[in-house]
Specification:
Two copies of one chain form a homodimer.
Chain A: H1 2-11, H2 14-26, E1 31-32, H3 33-40, H4 44-57, E2 60-65, E3 68-73, H5 75-85, H6 99-102
Antiparallel strand pairs in A: 1-3, 2-3
Helix pairs in contact in A: 1-4, 2-4, 3-4
The structure holds a DNA duplex (30 and 30 nucleotides).
Chain lengths: 106, 106
DNA sequence: GCGTCATTTCCATTATTCTGGAATCGTGGA
DNA sequence: TCCACGATTCCAGAATAATGGAAATGACGC
């Protein structure tokens, strides 16, 4: 529960959402902090603040690679979050909102 | 984009997340404001503030029914949000994080 | 060890959000 | 019309989050 709130709060901010989506697009290889900052044109302190926030939330991982710190999206945790949000949907009864069934999430 | 941030911000708060999950569980019929407040033990002003927030975000709908206002989860918008978050996953390349593929979301 | 470059921490300022009591609005029944 | 009740708005105080410059940390090559 607290985890979910943290994860959602991490994404509920324009800059962090941009960072996150950039990392989702980048895939498991991830991107260095520097590249992200360049791409989104952010001052280092601001970027670091937001990256730390995302990492704390579990939605993003970081690994050191030489002088760089590489960030990447944690797809498992994102998936757990989505699961949590739709848990017990419609109290187990047949679920009218059909759109929820169609997902295959490429 | 702004929509996504609003939706995420709406859920990124313990009380609102509880309300939302309650409504997901309740299904399309929804629950009256009063019932929600009773269930979660919230003062009316606080509850109203959070319900308004959720409704503004589009994740929750409200309809008047006699003297009651009934709130219900908007499953379509939630689904759109999830889609947005995983858009362009891994830049279109074969997607290593397999967990994302398995979802069928009952 | 020393300079360089990537990233983070420190800090103060500014802005935003949460909370809940009291007053108000709106609907329906008597 | 008047009352009762459900829900919302108003307001102000308290708490929390975002921003970015400057200084500190850490890693590598020489």
């Amino acid at each position: 529960m607290t985890h979910a709130v943290d994860a959602l709060a991490a994404l509920a901010q324009e800059t962090r959402l941009k960072v996150y989506r950039l990392l989702v697009e980048a895939g498991p290889e991830g991107l260095s902090a520097g590249l992200i900052g360049e791409e989104l044109d952010l001052p280092p302190a601001t970027l670091s603040f937001h990256l730390a926030h995302l990492a704390r939330s579990g939605l993003v991982r970081s690994r050191q690679e030489g002088r760089f710190v590489i960030y990447s999206a944690d797809f498992q945790n994102m998936n757990a979050l989505v699961g949590y949000l739709t848990e017990n949907c419609c109290g187990g009864r047949a679920c009218a909102p059909s759109t929820l069934r169609k997902r295959k999430t490429a």
